[in-house]
Specification:
With 113 residues, the protein is an alpha+beta fold. It is 33% helix and 27% strand. It has one domain: Cation efflux protein, cytoplasmic domain (Alpha-Beta Plaits), CATH 3.30.70.1350. The protein has helices spanning 13-26, 38-43, 78-94; strands at 31-34, 53-58, 63-72, 102-112. A hairpin with a 4-residue loop joins strand 2 and strand 3. Helix 1 runs antiparallel to helix 3. The radius of gyration is 14 Å and the shape is globular. This is Asp23/Gls24 family envelope stress response protein.
Length: 113
C-alpha cells in the first residue's frame, strides 16, 4: 500500500527514497535480503516503507540520510557488497532529490547466509 499526501496526492519524498533505495539494494549481486528491524516487524507488511531501510530528513541545510540493514549471500565479500549497495543507493536517491540536497548512505551487514 502506497500512501499519498492528502493535499498534493504525491507519494512523500521519504517513502519514494526508501522504495528506490530498497529496489537498488536488492538488485546488487550478493544481497540476500533486506533485514527488517523490530519496528518494521511490528508495523506489518502494509506500511509504505520497505523493511530494512530507514530514511531521515533535516531541513537546514537540506540533508537526507538513508540507512540499510541487509544480509549477504555466502561466497560474496561483505565489504564489496556493502560498497556496491552504497553506490547504487546513492545513485538511485539522486534521481529523487534536488541537486542541492546533501546525502549520506550507511549500509550495515547483519547476516551472511
Amino acid at each position: 500500500m502506497t500512501r499519498h499526501h492528502p493535499t498534493t496526492g504525491r507519494v512523500p519524498t521519504a517513502d519514494r527514497l526508501a522504495q528506490r533505495a530498497a529496489r537498488a539494494a536488492r538488485e546488487v549481486e550478493g544481497v540476500a535480503y533486506l533485514r527488517p528491524g523490530l519496528a518494521a516487524l511490528l508495523r506489518g507488511a502494509d506500511h509504505p516503507r520497505p523493511a530494512g531501510v530507514r530514511v531521515r530528513h533535516r531541513t537546514e541545510p537540506e540533508r537526507w540520510a538513508i540507512e540499510l540493514h541487509l544480509a549477504v549471500l555466502a561466497g560474496h565479500r561483505a565489504l564489496d557488497v556493502a560498497r556496491t549497495v552504497r553506490a547504487a543507493v546513492a545513485e538511485a536517491a539522486r534521481e529523487t532529490l534536488p541537486a542541492r540536497a546533501r546525502l549520506s548512505v550507511k549500509v550495515t551487514i547483519t547476516n551472511i547466509t
